[in-house]
Design a protein that fits this description.
The protein is 71% helix and 0% strand. The protein is built from 39 helices and no strands. It has helices spanning 3-25, 31-36, 40-50, 54-67, 70-82, 86-99, 103-115, 119-125, 136-149, 154-163, 169-184, 189-205, 209-225, 233-246, 250-261, 269-286, 290-302, 307-324, 326-336, 347-359, 365-373, 379-394, 402-414, 422-431, 435-443, 455-466, 470-483, 490-502, 510-522, 531-537, 543-553, 557-568, 588-597, 608-625, 630-639, 641-655, 663-668, 673-693, 698-705. The protein is globular.
């Protein structure tokens, strides 16, 4: 080998060795940085903020704001802007609005302008918004800025905001804050009239209908006769609420709204619609003019401004039908079920229909409703009517062949209603389907609808979990879910929710947030389900406390898990509208009585361990007082033992002896819808808990509890 070639080869080998040596000396990149690439800078910036190193944080946010993925860039730019001085914040907000122009961007920039008293910039950036449709927070900022700048459009803008949309807490804050001074400083007739109209709307929003009625002559004078103030559909609805609630002049009041629906004001389709809605409601309340009420609602359906308005008019029509005749209600369902827009809107009226069909013995109507709903109703409700049809045939209360019965049960079992599987399990029990097939059908729905996922949004949500930012997951999920409830794949939701659950404890709301995220994602028909989805939807939170209490009082753990999940969603400090508190949702009087019996000193109702122990004791006492019946104890836990005994007596009189009426059908006869739904939820939850964590067939648990 020539010396020249030998030296060249040596150089190559030396360079290679040097390269290998350098590579080995470099520290491996953080796995999360490898996973997230340029997006990692956003999350590292958040970590630096936690460490109070704003300079490092700013460097990372600056980098991510130009190199990150879509939503990371936006969140990074927001953080970068907030770290600047006043001048930089204002300039940054202007730059931000040049890139983004949605409501969220306007609110973000608007807050910066507002906080820095740049009212002119705020007004300029919001000059194009519709004050009757934009977020109320944004409307409130714009109106306040107008007040500060003494803008000549202030009073007219206040008028639009207070007459052109539903009254909200933002309106109330402004009403009890600067509004009086603003209107008092304007001596025009318009301002004086507006003050009266706003007073009227506030009274109605606070349900002080008696005081609001006194202002109705002035409302009609300013809105109908002199037309100083625009007569909006919201004012029509407020008038309707007053007349419906506080006046017995049914014929006169209904005729007023019918005339309004044909007046010049009805050129506004929403005014026409709400005039017809309240004409119908008042006619219905009269108990005399039912046919007119039905016509009012049908006319409202025909002029409904939105799909939701159409459903609302149809909902009122069905309820009016129901007050007259179940046959008429069934006929309306057969006629209109294919036209409604949101099937979940009608769940309550269909549940009430089922109760009335039971109590009136109209067995033949169940198959009519289930066939009318098939393909149009929500799956859980359709499954309910299908299951009851099969069971009525099974009990000999309804004529039908063995094939008819099997077909009805099979329909109930096949319909995928997400994790709402109460009637699916009941049907599986009747069809004698084994656990393996149950799991196969539930975990692999044939009609699953895939979400319209956004990979960038998913990366942002999962990044918060991977980098440990538990407080940012839930609000970010809420933001995206409001925009598009199908934006996240179920696996993404599961990963984020599982992280939140692991961060949960007795002093924060992460258990609830985790559960809420999963259930909101899986409560839609045909949601793709896995065992992990069910485990996150039915978590064993507070398992140590529940296990100890159940061992002490002889209660199955899965029963209490199901009860607590249904009662509080594992939120230890939640309070119901009735005043029930804590995980097992006990009234203070019940809690104190039971705590005294258990000799617990200084008992704290929101302490998880104490609340669970007392709730388990109370439930066990109800079981023993009601012939060791789990289902009756559940009804009593929700509605009181006296009511349950009264329902049993009425059931014996109206539907034969309770022992001859299966518990699943008895549940359907409970006269309080809340208790019916409660019973279904707890039984379903207990069955799922037993299946997931205690190696039991859920159908066996339903048998055990019923």
């Amino acid at each position: 080998m020539k010396l020249k070639n030998y030296l060249f080869l040596c150089c190559i080998l030396f360079a290679a060795a040097l390269t290998i040596g350098c590579a080995n000396s470099i520290k491996p990149q953080n796995p999360l940085q490898e996973k997230y690439g340029p997006d990692a800078d956003y999350f590292i910036g958040l970590q630096e903020l936690q460490n109070k190193d704003t300079k490092k944080a700013l460097r990372h946010f600056t980098k991510a704001s130009t190199q990150g993925s879509k939503y990371i860039r936006r969140r990074s730019l927001e953080q970068k802007i907030k770290l600047g001085n006043i001048k930089q914040q204002v300039a940054g907000a202007k730059e931000y609005l040049a890139l983004y122009n949605d409501d969220a961007a306007l609110i973000f920039a608007g807050k910066i302008f507002f906080e820095n008293k740049e009212y002119a910039l705020l007004l300029d950036s919001t000059s194009f918004i519709d004050i009757t449709k934009c977020p109320n927070e944004l409307a409130k900022m714009r109106i306040t800025a107008m007040s500060e700048k003494k803008d000549s459009r202030l009073t007219s803008t206040i008028c639009q905001w207070f007459t052109g949309r539903k009254i909200t807490p933002d309106h109330l804050d402004f009403y009890y804050g600067p509004l009086t001074q603003i209107l008092n400083s304007d001596e025009s007739d318009f301002a004086k009239a507006l003050s009266v109209i706003i007073d009227f709307r506030i009274l109605v929003s606070e349900k002080d209908y008696f005081s609001a009625m006194e202002l109705i002559p002035s409302v009609k004078e300013f809105c109908e006769k002199s037309q100083v103030i625009p007569f909006t559909n919201f004012l029509v609805a407020d008038l309707g609420r007053c007349y419906y609630t506080s006046s017995t002049k049914y014929k006169e009041n209904a005729e007023y709204f019918e005339a309004l629906s044909n007046s010049s004001f009805a050129r506004n389709n929403a005014v026409k619609y709400f005039s017809l809605i309240y004409a119908g409601r008042i006619n219905d309340k009269s108990g005399v003019y039912i046919s007119r009420a039905e016509k009012n609602f049908i006319d409202a359906m025909n002029c409904a401004p939105t799909a939701e308005d159409y459903d609302m008019a149809l909902w009122f029509l069905l309820n009016t039908n129901l007050s007259v005749s179940t046959d008429r209600c069934v006929a309306t369902i057969e006629q209109y079920a294919s036209t409604w827009k949101n099937p979940y809107y009608f769940t309550d009226v269909l549940d009430n229909l089922s109760l009335l069909l039971f109590t009136s013995g109209k067995w033949s109507s169940f198959p009519k409703v289930y066939k009318a709903l098939d393909g149009y109703g929500d799956n859980a409700t359709t499954a309910k009517f299908a299951y009851i049809t099969g069971q009525l045939i099974n009990k000999g209360l309804l004529k039908g062949t063995e094939e008819d019965k099997t077909a009805a049960f099979s329909k109930a079992f096949e319909l995928n209603a997400g994790t709402d599987i109460y009637y699916r399990l009941l049907a599986a029990k009747e069809l004698d389907i084994n656990l393996k097939e149950i799991e196969s059908k539930i975990f692999t729905p044939t009609t699953a609808v895939s979400a319209a996922n956004d990979a960038d949004a998913e990366k942002l949500l999962l990044g918060y979990a991977d980098f440990g930012f538990e407080d940012l997951i839930y609000p970010e999920w809420q933001y995206f879910y409001t925009l598009n409830n199908k934006i996240f794949d179920i696996n993404t939701i599961c990963q984020a929710a599982e992280f939140l659950r692991k961060c949960g404890n007795s002093t924060n709301s992460n258990y609830y947030k985790s559960l809420h995220m999963v259930t909101k994602t899986t409560n839609l028909d045909n949601s793709p389900l896995t065992r992990k989805v069910f485990e996150l939807s039915y978590p064993k939170n507070f398992s140590k406390e529940i296990k100890a209490a159940c061992e002490e009082f002889g209660v199955e753990e899965y029963d209490m898990l199901g009860l607590i999940r249904t009662e509080s969603f594992f939120n230890p400090i939640v309070e119901s509208r009735a005043g029930a508190l804590g995980l097992s949702q006990l009234m203070e009087s019940t809690f104190n009585d039971c705590a005294s019996r258990l000799k617990i000193d200084n008992a704290n109702i929101t302490d998880p361990q104490t609340n669970i122990r007392v709730g388990t004791y109370y439930y066990s006492s109800l079981v023993s007082r009601l012939d060791d019946s789990d289902i009756l104890a559940l009804f009593a836990y929700n509605a009181g033992i006296t009511r349950v005994r009264r329902w049993l007596q009425s059931s014996r009189v109206g539907l034969g002896l309770f022992k001859n009426l299966s518990s699943d059908l008895f549940l359907e006869t409970i006269p309080i819808s809340e208790t019916r739904n409660y019973g279904r939820k707890v039984i379903q939850s207990a069955a799922i808990y037993a299946w997931l964590y205690y190696d039991k067939n859920p159908c066996d648990i339903i048998d055990e509890m019923m």
